Amino acid sequence: MEIDGDRLLPGHVFAFLRESIPKIWLFWCSVPIPFKILIILVSISACVNIIASLSKSIVSNSSSWKKAPDSELMLSFVSGSGQYQRRRIYRDAHAYLFDRKSSKYSFAWLSYWLGNYENPSKVITFLLSLVYLVLAIVGIIEMAIRCFFGSLVYFIVNLSYFVFLLITWVVFQIIIPIFYIADKKTLKTQYCPKCYSAFLLAKFSCPYCGKIHSKLHPGKNGLLYAKCICGGKLPCASITKRKYLKSYCPNCDNILAGPNINSLTIQVIGGNSSGKTAFIAAFQHQYIGVNNKAGFRSVSFFPEYSFKELERIYSSGKTEKSPTDEVRAYFIIHGNKGSSDDGLVFYDVPDEIIISDQYAKNPLNFAYCDGIVIIVDPLSLLSVKSECEAATGLESTIGFSSDSAEDIIVHFINKYSEVAGRVAKKMSDTPVAVLISKTDLITINKQIGKEAIQACFSEKANEYYGYEDARDKICRQYLLNIGLINVINNLESVFSMVSYFPVSSIGHSEDGNPFDPKNVISPINWLARQCHSNIRDYTAFVEEKVNVFN
Amino acid sequence: MYSIRSTSKTTIALIILAICIALLMYWCSAVPSIFSYYVLSLILSKEHFGKFHSFLVSASFWLLLLASANEAVFGEKRGFRVIKSFDIPIFISAWVAIWGFIAMNTQVNITWFWLCYYLCLLVGLTLSLRRQSRIKGAGPARSSVSTPRILLALSPPSRNGFDVSIIDRIVLYGFKMAMLVDWLTLFVYLIVFFVQNRLSI
């Protein structure tokens, strides 16, 4: 074979092979048959063990994943775990390849096993040693073939696999931002009911080991699913139903009702014992009851213990004084098929938080409310209270608010302006529903009860745009008549949308019978319509069903 | 308990020794020389004295070789120490070589040669038999003061009472019996040979 200068060209290699192959074949034909069989067996054994070593290392490393830095999640296969597995497979495959004890189906293992065999008879060990020596020579030849060709094969396979992973990594890096942006677009701004911080993506806990993960979104940990360090598979995108995992506030680790709720947030404001908690108890009972009967998509509530407390209040017919140092949040959630759920959130704000300046936390929830419910207790006015007592007795006026409605409204507007950053002379678009409570009392019911409003509307239909307008104006006039003109003026000077409603949360005096609420749905329905919230369909349906029943 | 790996060292030494002997014999037959011619002539002269004589001589020498190998295996000899187990057959082979050297320069009486060869074999067998008897597990099964020594040696190996495997003891016993029979045959045939060939001595 001639070589061109100092270079070995591929053509020279092929020419060399063409000349050598017939000689090799002639030599092979001259080899005695027993040796031929032995060589073939050894070669087959070596090939089988090359494949077996690789397969064994692949199987043993198939569950090896690389942990992402600063995270309790594993890197996805394409982002890093694939290369990690490839390195380990390559290393372990070599270890198995060079270890004669790794496979029982080889001459090398057989000679090793025979070498360790012990017998009390020297004659038998001597005779077996003759077999052992033959096997040892065959085993050495087999190991030589195995190690040489195995290393070559592994190198080629490893290189090909590396290139494949590299290409997929590049493609993955292009796809990640697309998925990330698409997922981010499905997120709604959420607010923690405890620390009031705003965030888009909550923390999620692994349902298998309970570890909390803060960056569970499409990325290097996975596009649709991520792997926790416990091995559990977690959805990490909206389309893979990440919302069903338990979620926590990323700021204070408070457990949340849901990670992505399209919520209608309502602040319930009022003086002490004005009926805020009773209103929420009455509303939730009617609202959840009608939705469940109608068989709507799953309605859930959070926290469960708070709603159990509300139901207990509803059933017992007796209200209790709420804690004065915490704002309680009540979540009613409609589960949707999409990436976000619809929800109603009530914040029961104690009057102490509004009146006192001693609380460390500002009521930051004011900053992100969609609607405000202000409960005015007419019994807070002495004249109204005396009139009711004269008509129905002292028992009917037990549990009245001692706070002045005007003071509450003024303090609320000041706090609201401070937290929401409202500029003076600029009106707020947040709708406000003013609820006149305890309209079950005869003296109040005669003036702003359902029948009274209906009668007035029927009589002077041309003065009103509709029943709702009549209800609003009649209730407003009632407040004027009982001397709460400042309440009206203060509210209407700050808020552009104010409506007035007659409400009776309990429906009767606190006599131990369950609540019989009147008109608790319509204020919320009105708020939902003003905010164009998805909840308006549900509230409208519930109000219609409740009115039919009544 | 003996492992095959440790025993294989003795096996390797025996195989190397056998290969060396085979190479030596091949060299002797391939490289023509007067010395090897005379040695070969001496050895082939056994045919003149009959088939039984030829067979007995060959069988006795091979028995000595096997006994030496047996001693090497049971003594766990390795490396050059294996040669020590083969000192008797090596000595006999050297003795034949000396006779060959003598035959190069003088007229050798074949009958004297074979007579001495028989004596050498007898001595060699005696020494080899003693060595076999000293191997652990080759001793008599029962020890008794009143029992004659020869009867003790002829008694079959016991299955119990020793830490040597019964197979080893059977093999050692077999060798001892074979060597004993061979010794007796050699002794008898030595007398017959002497009587038959007294005129040519």
Task: Give an overview in words.
The complex is a heterodimer of chains A (550) and B (201). Chain A is α/β, with parallel strands linked by helices and 550 residues long. In chain A, 51% of the residues lie in helices and 12% in strands. Chain A contains 16 helices and 16 strands. The radius of gyration of chain A is 40 Å and the shape is elongated. Chain B is an all-alpha fold. Chain B has helices at residues 4-30, 34-44, 51-74, 81-85, 87-105, 110-134, 149-154, 166-196; one strand spanning 2-3. In chain B, helix 3 (51-74) packs parallel to helix 6 (110-134) and helix 3 runs antiparallel to helix 8 (166-196). The longest helix of chain B has 31 residues, at 166-196. Strand 2 of chain A pairs antiparallel with strand 1 (2-3) of chain B, so a sheet runs across the interface.
Name some characteristics of this structure.
A: alpha/beta; three-stranded antiparallel β-sheet; 16 helices; 51% helix; B: 201 residues; mainly alpha; 8 helices; 74% helix; flat
Set out the fold topology.
The complex is a heterodimer of chains A (550) and B (201).
Chain A (H helix, E strand, L loop, with lengths): L9 H21 L2 H29 L11 E2 L2 H22 L8 H10 L1 E2 L2 H64 L4 E2 L6 E2 L3 E3 L6 E2 L11 E4 L4 E3 L11 E2 L12 E10 L5 H19 L4 E4 L1 H13 L11 E7 L6 E8 L2 H5 L15 E6 L5 H11 L12 H16 L11 E5 L5 H7 L1 H10 L7 H15 L3 H10 L3 E5 L18 H11 L3 H15 L1
Parallel strand pairs in A: 10-13, 10-14, 14-15, 15-16
Antiparallel strand pairs in A: 1-7, 3-4, 5-6, 5-9, 7-8, 11-12, 12-13
Helix pairs in contact in A: 2-3, 2-5, 3-5, 4-5, 6-7, 6-16, 10-14, 11-12, 12-13, 15-16
Chain B lengths: L1 E2 H27 L3 H11 L6 H24 L6 H5 L1 H19 L4 H25 L14 H6 L11 H31 L5
